[in-house]
Design a protein that fits this description.
four-stranded antiparallel sheet, about 20% strand, two-stranded parallel ribbon, 4 helices, alpha+beta, Dna Ligase, domain 1
Amino acid sequence: MKTAGFALVQSGGNGPLPWNMLWTTLIRPSKLKYLNKYQKLNHFAGAWSIGSKANLWRNVQKQRRKHGKDFEICPTTYIFPEDYKRWCNDREMNNYKDMYILKPTSSSCGRGIRVIGKKDQLNNKKGGYLVSKYLSKPHLLRGYKYDLRIYVVVTSFDPLKAYLF
């Protein structure tokens, strides 16, 4: 960036922001109103509503309540610690016969994932975790489990420009 003539600046306060590009994980909505057409962000406001495991589940759950079967696209999921009691109750109602998968909400690349067996116990103090019912008979290709990952980059909303990989 320095070679291209850009300089690092610190932003703060209210009013026009002195930058062309902002690389961040979060921009406050109060700052969005000051953007001009030449300023670029690496994230769209509100992208974490689907980019975070916990927020994605919350949104899927809202759509399930609203639209029913059309949104049964992933296994029942619990966000810890707030759903801990519901998970315990559901587990007890199923006579502890289901297995679950525990995922940290702020991790990626499979780090911190573990399977919760039928007899395993979890501490409800653990925050920042998602627990989903483990699919015992997933769809297989030639006998192997697989991940289907579709990467999408949206470069503009008006006009809409999206690229899939």
